[in-house]
Description:
Structural class: alpha/beta
Amino acid sequence: xxxxxxxxxxxxxxxxxxxxxxxxxxxxxxxxxxxxxxxxxxxxxxxxxxxxxxxxxxxxxxxxxxxxxxxxxxxxxxxxxxxxxxxxxxxxxxxxxxxxxxxxxxxxxxxxxxxxxxxxxxxxxxxxxxxxxxxxxxxxxxxxxxxxxxxxxxxxxxxxxxxxxxxxxxxxxxxxxxxxxxxxxxxxxxxxxxxxxxxxxxxxxxxxxxxxxxxxxxxxxxxxxxxxxxxxxxxxxxxxxxxxxxxxxxxxxxxxxxxxxxxxxxxxxxxxxxxxxxxxxxxxxxxxxxxxxxxxxxxxxxxxxxxxxxxxxxxxxxxxxxxxxxxxxxxxxxxxxxxxxxxxxx
Length: 346
């Protein structure tokens, strides 16, 4: 017999076709689908409304390859960083971020990353492979369960801001969101999901064409090409002008305002002139701004801007009509904060 197929790689129609080919009742496909995506079942043996013989047949023909928690660390601020082991021994990281009014899951979309952003620990890793939709989905489920177990609180938000560039794993990312948001999946509202990109213009336009319902965030960090090229090499082939065009197209198609993520680095992009350039960019794209504290990493020499400079930067934008949120670092003491995710042996 040939290599078994991962059952969660099948579309629903393909699962139905298999049941018919095996002379099994068609409605069984719906039962299995619900076990996989609604009940998050990771063992065929647990599919209790199927006969023992059918469960054995499924095991004979298919693999079920769940993601597992290999390691976890809890920060002083209650943030939990998780190391997830994949079926082929690769590891990725995810984070549960509890705040007063939110419980957020930050998930990865690739093993490593190919984009080499200078301030991000993942950017110093090689990209090994893309994650499957099921591997992204599993991270969400495991973090959701952890939120309920540890903090007796439901998950409220999902952000695709972990390891990797989501738009370079486009199909699997969208499929994972489909499984999370569909009624026969986890039945989440897409408005509670944010996908963050370093800025791949043609894929942003594709999101517009697909009329996605989730939120889009752009890791901006500098509103002029010269500075952005220095810290984000992807900008050399996806200039701010191209991104502006793609983001406006996305907005026209979805009516979803874009969130600009802006890390403030000491002495690099923290001046009022930098804020003025950001204001100019915000005027050209329907947007709001998340100002993010920088979280140092061993591979780079950047430092976080002074708190006073951050406050002045934000105040300038707000005074000129931009919606601004300052995001304080969470989980910095366990390398779980924004830009710090990289597999380390503890």
